[in-house]
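Much of the work behind modern protein science is quiet bookkeeping, done one molecule at a time. The fold becomes a row of whole numbers, each drawn from a learned catalogue of backbone shapes. The protein below has been through that process, and both of its lines are reproduced in full.
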Amino acid sequence: MQIRDFIPQVLPHNLPSLAGGVPPAPPGTIFVKAGPSGFAVPPRKFTLHFGRAEADVHVVIGGDDEFVSRLAGIFTCDGDEWWLRNEGRRPILMPGVDPVLRHHEVSVNAGYTPLTIETPNRRTHLLEVHIVGNPGRRQRDVGQARTLTSDVTDLSPVERLMLIALGQRYLRREPYPAPVTWKQAADDLNEAQPNPLHPWTAKAVERRISELRARLSTGPGAIRGIVKEPGMVEPLGNTLNDNLIRALLRNATLVPEDLYVLNESV
């Protein structure tokens, strides 16, 4: 089938899961489905929108869940390859890669890819994606109401600032991110918000983050794995801080826009 023979189209409401395959289409065609809502586009310059706002998107996901953004994300094609870009607040989970954060994008391989958006009311919304492969080609590695964010962790301005400095590599979506050193965090904090009378030190950052982990490990909304627990194997290294940062990314407490406090653009 030629590209000219396949136009962008709404998928039938009774189309089964894309995991079992898709209707005939040219190589590079993207099929996107969430429940009964679905859309397909051949490889061409096109932006496919998905989210909660039925009137404004091609594929409706989480239409009855106000924790899902009205525009959760988009798929764009440069005429050859499809890319996923997160336009909502909540991370988009994709197998084999770190959570796709707000305003971050990642290429999508040919074949079937399940994407999920988790919300704090214990719901997981599935977005099925199937891109028709090109035989012989090697794959690359790879509602209108206000969106609610009630599971965002309560942080003081100073706590948020420390965590942004500590987790900056995650917010930039660097490959294999890890917390920066205490010294680098202190240096970045001093540069971002200088205070000659009370400058940050590595010891001060370490102490304050340890106190924060202890606070967030108890009470309503407690985060697991951020303080030493029975069964954890020494040495822990950065494990506790890594668990903390990833938890705050998952519940959208930390978002890439936070990098502005370090005088970085996103």
